[in-house]
């Protein structure tokens, strides 16, 4: 058996409310009903960020701005239909959600829900993904601060 990790691409969907609070959307996995982010295998002729955006639409009915560069990486063991496991490395792309569809391809197979980052970080099983979610408010604030400085000419 090949223990080389397989590559996947995922979206970390988030939104910011009127008070500046960040929320993260998680979906349930089809098989085990664990809370996860939308993710999947590479799709031919799509860039990694485009693949992540497609997965966010198919699994959660989401559309929005997705980063071109990965926000981070996490690893996990994917359970296959054969009941065996394959190690996977997931490149995670931030997605600022602009639209939630009422109908989407996997709506009958998954649940989707918004959480504050701390709760979302506690709900996912993968420690590296938990860290990426927990760090989101601080990392977004740092990006926004750098952007504001660059726009004002002080950066």
From TrEMBL:
GO cellular component, one term: cytoplasm
InterPro entries to which the protein is assigned, alphabetical: DDP-like_NUDIX (IPR047198), NUDIX_hydrolase-like_dom_sf (IPR015797), NUDIX_hydrolase_dom (IPR000086)
GO MF terms held by the record: metal ion binding; pyrophosphatase activity
Gene3D superfamilies: Nucleoside Triphosphate Pyrophosphohydrolase
Key words of the record: Hydrolase, Magnesium, Metal-binding
Protein name: DNA mismatch repair protein MutT
Cross-referenced Pfam families: NUDIX (PF00293)
Required cofactor names: Mg(2+)
Highest rank taxon of the organism: Bacteria
Source species: Salinarimonas ramus
Lineage of origin: Bacteria, Pseudomonadati, Pseudomonadota, Alphaproteobacteria, Hyphomicrobiales
Positions of the Nudix hydrolase domain: 4-137
Transmembrane segments: none
Entry keyword annotation includes Hydrolase: yes
SUPFAM superfamilies for the chain: Nudix
């Amino acid at each position: 058996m090949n223990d080389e990790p397989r590559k996947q691409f995922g979206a970390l969907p988030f939104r910011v409310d009127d008070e500046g609070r960040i929320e993260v959307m998680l979906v349930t996995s089809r098989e085990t009903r664990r809370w996860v982010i939308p993710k999947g295998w590479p799709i031919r002729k799509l860039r990694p960020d485009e693949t992540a955006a497609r997965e966010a639409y198919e699994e959660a009915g989401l559309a929005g701005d997705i980063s071109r560069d990965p926000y981070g990486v996490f690893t996990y063991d994917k359970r296959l239909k054969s009941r065996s496991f394959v190690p996977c490395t997931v490149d995670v792309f931030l997605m600022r959600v602009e639209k939630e569809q009422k109908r989407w391809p996997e709506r009958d197979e998954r649940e989707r829900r918004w959480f504050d980052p701390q709760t979302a970080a506690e709900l996912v099983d993968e420690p590296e993904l938990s860290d990426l979610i927990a760090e989101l408010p601080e990392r977004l604030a740092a990006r926004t601060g750098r952007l504001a400085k660059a726009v004002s000419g002080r950066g």
